TrEMBL record, chains A, B:
Transmembrane segments: none
UniProt keyword annotation of DNA-binding present: yes
Xref: Pfam families: LacI, Peripla_BP_3
Name the UniProt record assigns to this protein: Transcriptional regulator, LacI family
InterPro entries in the record: HTH_LacI, LacI/GalR-like_sensor, Lambda_DNA-bd_dom_sf, Peripla_BP_I
Keyword Transcription tagged: yes
Gene3D superfamilies documented for this protein: 3.40.50.2300, lambda repressor-like DNA-binding domains
UniProt-listed PROSITE patterns: HTH_LACI_1, HTH_LACI_2
Amino acid sequence: MTATRRPTLADVAREVGVSAKTVSRVLNEDGPSSPETRRRVLEAVAKLGFQPNLMARSMRVGGPDTTVGLVVPDLGNPFFGAVAGGIEDAVHGHGLTLLMGSSDDDPEREHALIRTFLARRVSVLMVAPAVGADHAHLKSHRAAGMPVVFLDRPGNGLTTDTVVSSNRAGTQEGVAHLIAGGHRRIGFIGDLPARLYTRRERQAGYRAALAGAGLPHDRGLVADAHDPAGAAEATARLLALPDPPTALLSGNNVMTIGVMTELSRSGRKDVAVVAFDDVPMAGILEPALTVVAQNPVTMGESAGAAALERLGGDRGRARTILVDTRLVPRGSGELPPPARTR
Amino acid sequence: MTATRRPTLADVAREVGVSAKTVSRVLNEDGPSSPETRRRVLEAVAKLGFQPNLMARSMRVGGPDTTVGLVVPDLGNPFFGAVAGGIEDAVHGHGLTLLMGSSDDDPEREHALIRTFLARRVSVLMVAPAVGADHAHLKSHRAAGMPVVFLDRPGNGLTTDTVVSSNRAGTQEGVAHLIAGGHRRIGFIGDLPARLYTRRERQAGYRAALAGAGLPHDRGLVADAHDPAGAAEATARLLALPDPPTALLSGNNVMTIGVMTELSRSGRKDVAVVAFDDVPMAGILEPALTVVAQNPVTMGESAGAAALERLGGDRGRARTILVDTRLVPRGSGELPPPARTR
DNA sequence: TTGAAAGCGCTAACAG
DNA sequence: CTGTTAGCGCTTTCAA
């Protein structure tokens, strides 16, 4: 079997007996064309199975490629999947397609992906930055008219449109919810590295809630992990303290799996929990899991909308779009602390 | 602020005082070049921040675009996110990038996306087909050397490499597990439309297990839904039958949410459940959820590997790659049926 | 070791 | 209403 060449504009033109430009006109509904020519061109297009080469078109038009380059840390994380879905919804009506890659939270891979995307002349670049990545090199590209949007986390060395969850306020609300329920010793299980933006913000919200209630901030109640197993260990460690927490705030969906697994394993149904980020079966757990829900689809849509405005010529100053989180009380956050023995 | 033009090969050449071809040679390590020239070129490239235009390159070379076009029904579904991650892992080392879009299980949108991808001259096309979509029109493209791979579901009207889960055998194993536990009336909660490939296969596995055990196939124990709420209703309906099932097989992750929600709501801890497709917190539910786990990452990797072989010149006949599922007993599938009153 | 010319598939600009 | 010419940014081909 021999690879057959794909038909070009010229092939269609030859078939019909007109010039390439005429075919182009018909196809792009650019300029006038006689109904008769039109008909014959379309016929030939169908007959030959011609499909215009978008690369060639973009190139000649001089505009960027009709793609949105998106770099996320992990394609497998449903959070980023939902974000991607939101972006696609926002832009696909404008003829833009998603070009995606995973950085695996590695600045090198992120940089490589960005380079590839730039080389492809994407219309828009969206990045959920890896920890430690630098983005100063994108300045010139943004100046050249390519919108850059940071997602979930701000970038480094570049001030541009950024879409993030209300991490701090959301966590603060979650912790306040626990405090309102009578808890005074509340643990925080955060992800690593500790300098990750979302981790820092959520922990700041945790501290703010404690401060707001006049509660002391016990550094010993803050634990770290970078996977569910680690989160489970961290949970066990906190609960084994001499004066253990009566409630926990889980810093993200991955931590939550570990926290809940450990509570389930040890049969501790008396520990109140609020988890940051919603999870599918939260309502079925026992007790049902109270969460601070994020809105990843909205985040994606906002990012898409912002990018489209920039493409439309908006040169205003960079905006930070805060997408609201929402406290969803389901039970686990409403557990009262055990009666105090004093 | 005025949009500054991006530097081209010619700009670099002018800067250095050589021809464009020389710059091209240095950059692509094609043909010889003097160390001195080389140095000056690289210097100018760095100075101007030149990045070769990949579109122009692909076009001139005549080869396809360095992308893998992937169409999935729903970007937000973690299953497809994981599949995409697997594909990316497999191909990114070969210089390929993922171009993704959601069809929303709508054949029209799927077709539009495929058209866009073809127009972009993707190197590979991967599709998780929408119900009712036709793919005969891809024949010529495959003949022209573009690998086409179907994912999760076979395509229509085109025989080509296909990667699917062992839906039938997996479900059969799950149902056999329930039967081995003593269940004789087992309900099946499947997704709609009923002619969806995965639904049909899984239901066939269900029937095969019943037949294998000499159990009657009661059509009344099979229910449908297309979202969690519907699955919850379907579950309630089955359990309200005069002679209700003592065990349920949930046909996919979305159904599972509804099934478990209803069991939780009604406090029915006596109904055995096996769910097709694993879910994050399955182990924490009470009882812990027994599942037939799929392997989406492996599916993506297999698809990627198959595509790469085709790109490498493999013209062998189309293969169907069955990715094994795995029964993960966790408790809910091991519940015995209630003692029979006769 | 380097350069000049041609051309990938398409469209902008101008004629006719 | 239609055609011609030129050129997007790059690489191939051939010549120097």
